[in-house]
Amino acid sequence: MNKIKVACIQLTSSPDIDENLAAAAKLVREAAGQGAAFILTPENTDQMRRYVKDRVAASGDMETHKPIAFFAALAKELGIWLLIGSLGVRVSEDKLANRSFLFSPAGEIAQTYDKIHMFDVTLSRTEFYRESSDFQPGRQAALADMDGVKLGMGICYDLRFPHLWRDLAKAGAQILTAPAAFTMPTGEAHWEVLLRARAIETGSFVLAAAQTGEHEGGRQTWGHSMIIGPWGEILAAMDREIGIITADIDLSEVDKARAAIPALTHDREYEKPT
């Protein structure tokens, strides 16, 4: 798998889980039909809701949440590596984990990752988010092995914490995944810059599948899914439409980028400011 075709799916998820599963599956099948061996969907693939309490009520745990078995079966049917950007999995009576799932071509869960950094921000008087009120943050970085390809997993707001991605790259990750549901103001200002920076800093491919358009309650997401090479070059991108982007990637480019600028080996101890 040194040379593989990858794909990012861009969606506008609604509150209807069945509707979202059908929409995602249609595009995953289309990407697989184009030869993609590794396919990535956005954060909140299962549902986007205005009120998280409604999402908690509609979600199950690892044994009962319908999308888990659905996407496992889809990966097996198509014989692909499938990363579902995130699903809301119930971990207590009133909280979810924002959990990314990597399914193998055998339909097995190869790895999961719970979003570590919570999106607790105030963008304006009318647009603010308190993710930590409803989601339990993860505590473990996640590295996966896809038939010898090393994959580092993150979700959305994690993009703003470069040490996470650096740690993943230093542990061997060649591809970094950043499924997201970026807001319009932060997406327009920061999305491309953050993605390219994480690729350049780590000498890694970065795959970012995004939510797009208008969701329940009028929430707007930025879209602009991207596939970026280890030198920071944009290999594929889209605007705000629903659809697919693909790229043929050569993992030897990771070795070349890291050999040219071996920054991952140049860490030095220093005294932190007080």
What does this structure look like?
This protein has a single domain, classed as Carbon-nitrogen hydrolase (Nitrilase/N-carbamoyl-D-aminoacid amidohydrolase, 4-Layer Sandwich). It is of the alpha/beta class and 274 residues long. 27% of the residues lie in helices and 29% in strands. The chain has 6 helices and 16 strands. The mean pLDDT is 96.
Domain unit count:
1
Structural class: alpha/beta
Tally of DSSP β-strands: 16
| Helical segment count | 6
Rounded to the nearest angstrom, the distance between the terminal CA atoms is 47 Å
* Cα shape: globular
What do the pLDDT scores average to?
A: 96
What labels would you give this structure?
274 residues; alpha/beta; Nitrilase/N-carbamoyl-D-aminoacid amidohydrolase; 29% strand; globular
Strand and helix layout:
Blueprint: E1 3-10, H1 17-33, E2 38-40, H2 52-58, H3 66-78, E3 81-90, E4 96-103, E5 109-114, E6 120-122, E7 128-130, E8 142-146, E9 149-153, H4 162-170, E10 175-177, H5 184-202, E11 205-208, E12 212-214, E13 220-222, E14 226-228, E15 234-237, E16 243-250, H6 252-260
Parallel strand pairs: 1-2, 2-3, 9-10, 10-11
Antiparallel strand pairs: 1-16, 3-4, 4-5, 6-7, 8-9, 11-14, 12-13, 14-15
